[in-house]
Amino acid sequence: MKALRVPPVYKCIGLCDADLLDNGTRHPNLVLMKIAGFLFDNNVLFELILDPKANLDRYEHVFMSRVFTFTNLPEFYTKAIGTPDEAKFHIGGTGFYANDTSIRQYRKKREEDFFRLDHDAYLNSFVNHRGGHKEKGIDMARQMPYYHLYDAYVEKRIKAGFKRDKYKDYHKYSIGFLTRGCVRHCPFCINKLENQVCQYSKLEWFLDNERDEKGKLVRPYIYLWDDNFLAADRTIWEPLLQELIATKRPFQFRQGLDERMLAQSPDGELMAQMLSQSKYHGDFIFAFDNWKDRELIERALKIWKHYNPKKGTKFYLFCGFKLTEHSHNKFYKDVWELFQRIKVLMSYGCVGYVMRHEDYHKYEISNLYVQIARWCNQQQFYKKMSFWEFVYRNQSYWEEHSKGITDRPHLKTFEEFEEDLNNGYYGERKDQVKMCLPLQSVMRTLDKFPEHREELLEMFNYKMENLVNPKLWE
Ligand code: SF4
Fold this sequence. Notes:
Strand content: 5-15%
Bound molecules: iron/sulfur cluster
Shape: globular
Strand order of the largest sheet: 2-1-3-4
Number of strands: 12
CATH topology of the domain at 1-171: Rossmann fold
Number of helices: 18
CATH class of the domain at 1-171: Alpha Beta
Low-confidence stretches: none
């Protein structure tokens, strides 16, 4: 498949990644890449729209996808509403319904969204070149993505001074779903109504084999968007995992794997063993979303670490769900559970990755989540410093580089910091030093929950080197 550029004089089909135009993502949109692949198969000209104010005269149709509900839609769309240009739009994606609170509405919109492209009259006027039962229209499972769709975007960013490697997700990976669906019904997840995991695409339907002039694979890696691969029946996941391993290409499940399955499935040991023998790309990613799963997670961790004692293992840590401005108890519980999960992970030598639900914004000290994520999600900090040390280092760095104060230690304990505070070192007067935002958020949290002060300080001082305990899995 070659890169395609449409000269400006020609009309074409516009493909719009609304999240990209609103700077909301670093992942290519797979649906758009598949629509592009389908148009490419049918020799229809298309391009990715890179300007939120683009002139719609150039486009006969615009396929617009939005994944995140917080993404602002581009100006060319909002201006087209109520005009004849509105009819050009074919829109879809989870960003149009993911936060719908009525289950009935949610179910209806999700089903419509899932099958929208199947019923699209424009796409159904072209032939499906990818086999299967469908003669006309796009078969989403079988359609090979068009992997050059984001080339112009990447080139634009490189010209703007960014490194190509920053955009490797757009040009180094074959991307697809081997399975779809889940069985867990997590209330915050778009898969909350799914009841099973089914096979979806065959690997060969999205595995890219393009080679450069030296014969090297242009896209040497594979990333998979499967929702819950390990919860599929063994007759599904085992041959698929074998097939992935047989490609000898490094692969990665981007949404994480469900670690609980290692403890819950009779095949848990086999899963851990096969994954240990695979060429996994980057850290293994699991999810530890609920504190109530801790026993299961620990049992699974013992199996996992037995087979993978040295492999980098990361856990997504979901938080911030259903917070409101004054839901103080909920906030405290959420932060407490987040740190307890981190403590378990540290004791098993694993790293966390904080994933905030957009509700976190609503709480009055929402910035605490931002700071916890800044610490936890950067392994060089998480592995070497406690949260408190990270926060204090932010302050001392700022004092050194913005205020030119060079005669103070980079790190202090909370007690030492408090001594400075009581001595009037910090404050708003000219002869005092202001606190940086991370420190302000910590102090606001401590002031808000005086009854939990000791507990908060204990959690803020969790440190991997003090907590890691190989006896837990050896
Ligand atoms: S386990 Fe993961 S994919 Fe399944 S419902 Fe929960 S968050 Fe969603």
